[in-house]
Amino acid sequence: MSLAEHIQQQNARYASRFDRSTLALPPARRWAIVACMDARLTVEEVVGIGTGDAHIIRNAGGLVTDDAIRSLAISTHLLGTNEFAIIEHTGCGMLTFEDEPVRRQIAERTGADTGDLRLFAFRDLEANLREQVRRVVESPLFQTGIPVTGYVYEVETGRLRPVVSAKTGAANVEREPASIR
After folding, report:
1. Is 166 helix (H, G, I), strand (E, B) or coil?
2. Which long-range contacts (CB under 8 A, 24 or more apart) does 13-20 make?
3. Which among 76, 85, 126, 160 is least surrounded, fewest beta carbons within 10 Å?
């Protein structure tokens, strides 16, 4: 069965018992989470939330890209979120390659110019997570005082391990986010 066929079949089943039409536009818990797109990480199950509780922003690596910053800014300024989490995980595919060889491979397969394509592979999971938290904390697009916590999801155990915590705002710009270990 193709993806399109699966989607059509399963959506018909979902729509027949749909009961979420009254959920509010803003997330009920006023949280936003940036997480890796890895198929082994079901964010809602891992953190114990349901549909409508939080904004979930996913991409390869759980990176705070310019687009993730844009989504967080919309989430907080227009929809009232007031706490952020970033979730990366052990065994992440972003730890397994370097940008340049993959850019070349894509160019060879497609003929596209990949010179400006940034994949953002990384070598150190915890250092990368700290960098993602720093990007949020130091962004001028957020009001001061929003808590930001970075977690590592351990795919081997299902546990979520807190690594770094900080708050947005000028007071945090001059220092590394403090470890919460």
Report:
1. strand
2. 20/51, 20/52
3. 126
**What count of other Cβ atoms lies within 10 Å of the Cβ of residue 173?**
12
Alpha-carbon span 60 to 119, nearest angstrom: 9
pTM of the model: 0.91
In the chain, helix, strand, coil percent, each to 5?
Answer: 35, 20, 45
The H-or-E segment that residue 87 falls in is: strand 83-89
Contact 87, 46 (CB under 8 A): yes
**pLDDT at residue 176, rounded to an integer:** 44
Domains along the sequence of the chain with CATH:
23-179 (3.40.1050.10)
C-alpha torsion sign, points 70, 75, 80, 82: negative
The whole-number average pLDDT for the span 42-46 is 97
Residues 6+ apart with CB under 8 A from 92: 36, 38, 61, 125
H/E element, 55: strand 54-59
